[in-house]
Amino acid sequence: MPSMASSPTQLILDLGIEMQRDINGIEMGVLDNGIPFLTQTGLANICGVTRSQIQDISAEWEEHIDDDILTKDRISYIKEQLFSKGYSEKKLYIETRKNGVVHHAYPDIVCSVVLEYYAFEAKTTRPVAIKNYRNFASFGMQSFIYQALGYKPQDVWDYHRERISILQTVRLMDFSSFSLKLTA
Fold first, then answer.
1. Residues 6+ apart with CB under 8 A from 42
2. Does residue 18 contact residue 103 with C-beta atoms inside 8 Å?
3. How far apart are CA 119 and CA 110, in angstroms?
4. Structure confidence at residue 1 as a pLDDT band (50, 70, 90)
5. How many domains does the chain divide into?
6. 104 vs 27: CA distance, rounded Å
7. Which of 8, 21, 87, 180 has its C-alpha lying 20 to 30 A from 60's C-alpha?
8. 173 with 181: CB under 8 angstroms?
């Protein structure tokens, strides 16, 4: 009797979307387990490409994930970069459900590599991808230095909060624009 082998499929994880927003045309969010992500549209927008190009990369990934030979095409570059970072999932995205609809959440590690590809490795690099890559790199460098030093930048609102907390400890009996009577 011939065996009926089925192709591996990714199950929809029981992960909810903790939060999701559109910030300046970039759809992003955080899954319940803390993984930051971009939607397919968000990833396309930061790379300066169409959503269908991200779909094509996703399909190529699934088709070539088990290939041993790397060539000079885009999926080989993306695969080499992701494998070197420990990412070897069968899909480039995590399927989740929100309000009964399946969503594709591209984890930050995938987004970084795809953005880098379109910024520097694609046959036609995208100026928007270069700009966004540099913005993320600057933010990442700052975060790295802060974390390495254990530095926490001063919150500009700290002084204001201190003043408010002082006022909250004092009972206000009468306040007008002309007089202020305080009692302890």
1. 22, 26, 27, 28, 106
2. no
3. 14
4. very low
5. 1
6. 11
7. 21
8. yes
Domain extent at residue 76: 17-149
Tokens of 52: 């269908």
Q: What does pLDDT average to over the chain?
A: 83
Q: 169: which 2 tokens?
A: 């400890």
Q: What is the pLDDT of residues 125-176, one digit of tens each?
A: 999 999 999 999 988 888 888 888 888 877 777 766 666 666 555 545 444 4
Query: Given pLDDT bands bounded at 50, 70 and 90, which one contains residue 69?
Result: confident
What's the distance, CA 49 to chain centroid? 17
pTM of the model: 0.74
Q: Is the pLDDT score of 179 beyond 70?
A: no
Q: Which residue has the tokens 């046959």?
A: 123
Residue 88 lies in a domain: yes
**Within a domain: residue 154?**
no
Query: Does residue 82 sit within a domain?
Result: yes
Residue 162 in any domain: the answer is no
Q: Measure the CA–CA gap between 50 and 27, rounded to whole angstroms.
A: 14
